[in-house]
């Protein structure tokens, strides 16, 4: 309430000197800079609009992608540059960048944001429809607008530029990257390309289509930031290995799930699936990997509220986390039905286990314990 009063007071003071439109724009910019703190290290110096901030590549992801352009001859073209986050990242590794957007305001924000990052001398902006661009393109980054039809769409056919142009871009250029929503319908649409799913702090942020000289050997890759863990494989070379619920259960990072690499990861970590239609993994050993979140199994429960309530009455906790993937569950209703009269935290996972729906009572394992397990393995003769 105090912050709202302070903001209203500030607006009133500013309107004594400036027009209402300018004050409104200034207050919006202040709000967006605060919201951008988790995305950009220099958010307080940058320029945003609401859509531009929402669609902007987070700094950590942009920096990671920029590294692939290190051996490319410039200039690198950043098509549909938005507020310029990818342009800035590529320029920060010493590359000359031409940033293109049909919005003059977007080009202006890109220039101002480049100045904030001290790379403005390496970034040139062109205000143009990228589909009308006549310049020869060698290496490109493209971020199609997913709101071209007025609302967000996951269909590449509805993006601007559309799927047809993106395919022509792949044929036309020596190499590059196309940034897509991880929820978009990219499967089967880009032959001879590498599709990389990238997560940041456990949230899948984007699908990047690498093509030409910048594509990797495998068609699918998942990369987890900030750890840098990466897994590339052909999903069709790995098959589900289903086993019984063991001592530990593992929640797989969403980038690996979306890339279809759960079985490749299971093979690498020597784990098994709970069910061939379930992404949770299980095993008798505690695995320390940024690709999975481990839980210690406490009990296997039948999937009915009576048995679940009884378990948590007999083994009470103060805080209960409920997780599920493919089983439809009214989480709020279920949580309200379970008494929370103890201490500590527990997790209830609703999973498919050997073809049946089950509840699994578990406790999340903190990273220190997982690291200690890794040290014990290292010390073994």
What oligomeric state best describes the polypeptide chains here? single chain
- Considering the protein shown, what is the CATH homologous superfamily of the largest domain? Vaccinia Virus protein VP39
Structural class: alpha/beta
Tell me about the biggest sheet? 9 strands, mixed
As a percent range, the share of strand residues is: 25-35%
**Span between N and C termini?**
61 Å
Q: Based on Cα principal axes, name the global outline.
A: globular
Number of helices: 12
Task: Summarize the structure in words.
The protein has two domains: 166 residues, 3-Layer(aba) Sandwich (Rossmann fold); 132 residues. The protein is built from twelve helices and 16 strands. A nine-stranded mixed beta sheet has the order 3-2-1-4-5-7-6-8-9. Helix 5 links the parallel strand 1 and strand 2. The longest helix has 16 residues. It is globular, with a radius of gyration of 24 Å.
Give the key terms.
RNA_cap_Gua-N2-MeTrfase, 12 helices, 2 domains, Rossmann fold, 381 residues, 31% helix, disordered C terminus
């Amino acid at each position: 309430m105090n912050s709202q009063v302070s903001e209203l007071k500030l607006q009133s003071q500013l309107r004594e000197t400036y027009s209402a439109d300018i004050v409104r724009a200034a207050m919006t910019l202040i709000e967006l800079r605060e919201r951008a703190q988790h995305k950009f290290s220099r958010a307080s110096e940058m320029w945003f609009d609401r859509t531009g901030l929402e669609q902007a590549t987070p700094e950590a992801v942009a920096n990671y992608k920029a590294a692939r352009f290190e051996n490319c001859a410039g200039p690198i073209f950043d098509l549909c540059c938005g507020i310029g986050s990818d342009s800035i990242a590529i320029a920060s590794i010493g590359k000359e960048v031409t940033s293109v957007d049909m919005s003059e305001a977007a080009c202006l924000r890109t220039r101002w944001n480049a100045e904030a990052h001290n790379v403005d001398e390496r970034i040139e902006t062109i205000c143009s429809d990228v589909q009308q661009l006549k310049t020869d393109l060698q290496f490109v980054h493209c971020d199609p607008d997913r709101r071209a039809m007025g609302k967000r769409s996951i269909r590449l056919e509805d993006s601007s530029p559309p799927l047809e142009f993106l395919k022509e871009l792949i044929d036309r250029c020596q190499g590059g990257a196309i940034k897509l929503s991880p929820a978009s319908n990219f499967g089967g649409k880009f032959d001879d390309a590498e599709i990389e799913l990238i997560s940041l702090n456990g949230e899948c942020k984007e699908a990047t289509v690498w093509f030409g000289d910048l594509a990797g050997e495998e068609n699918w890759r998942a990369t987890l930031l900030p750890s840098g863990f990466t897994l590339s494989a052909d999903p069709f070379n790995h098959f589900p290995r289903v086993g019984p619920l063991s001592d530990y259960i593992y929640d797989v990072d969403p980038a690996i799930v979306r890339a279809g690499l759960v079985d490749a990861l299971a093979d690498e970590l020597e784990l098994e699936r709970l069910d061939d239609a379930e992404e949770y993994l299980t095993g008798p050993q505690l695995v320390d990997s940024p690709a999975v979140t481990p839980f210690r199994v406490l009990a296997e429960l039948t999937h009915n509220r009576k048995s679940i309530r009884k378990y948590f009455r007999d083994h009470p906790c103060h805080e209960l986390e409920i997780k599920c993937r493919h089983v439809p569950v009214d989480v709020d209703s279920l949580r309200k039905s379970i008494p929370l009269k103890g201490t500590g935290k527990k997790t209830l996972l609703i999973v498919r286990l050997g073809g049946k729906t089950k509840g699994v009572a578990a406790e999340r394992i903190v990273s220190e314990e997982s690291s200690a397990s890794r040290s014990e393995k290292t010390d073994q003769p």
